[in-house]
């Protein structure tokens, strides 16, 4: 039997995910503490940071908590 690989679509590259995690961990001790502060589920925050899901609402909350632009798909405030 031949097995077939299933690839998951990512909205961010691994390099971008690592950059985002580094910026978050400079301000917060854990991703869980960030999720608790912004009032979101830990799993959804992890999946957005790793690029497996895309949510402008949660990404904007993360950016406001960290204090810098992190995600390429969120709009810049004018």
Structure explained in plain terms:
This protein has 78 residues and is mainly alpha-helical. Helix content is 54%, strand content 0%. It is built from four helices and no strands.
Features:
mainly alpha; 4 helices
SSE order and pairing:
Blueprint: H1 14-27, H2 31-38, H3 42-50, H4 56-66
Q: How would you briefly describe this protein structure?
A:
The protein has about 80 residues and is mainly α. Helix content is about 55%, strand content about 0%. It has helices at about 15-25, 30-40, 40-50, 55-65.
How helical, in percent, are the residues?
A: 40-55%
Beta-strand percentage range: under 5%
Low-confidence stretches: none
Specify the oligomeric state: single chain
How many whole angstroms does the radius of gyration measure? 14 Å
Order of helices and strands: HHHH
- Largest sheet, if any? none
Strand tally? 0
Shape: elongated
Total count of helical runs of at least 4 residues: 4
Give the terminus-to-terminus CA distance: 56 Å
Specify the structural class: mainly alpha
Indicate the mean pLDDT.
Answer: 89
């Amino acid at each position: 039997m031949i097995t077939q690989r299933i690839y998951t679509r990512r909205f961010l590259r691994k390099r971008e995910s690592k950059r985002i995690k580094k910026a978050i961990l400079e301000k917060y001790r854990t991703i869980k503490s960030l999720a608790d502060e912004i009032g979101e589920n830990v799993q959804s925050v992890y999946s957005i940071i790793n690029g497996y899901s895309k949510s402008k609402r949660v990404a904007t909350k993360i950016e406001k908590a960290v204090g810098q632009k992190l995600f390429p798909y969120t709009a810049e405030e004018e």
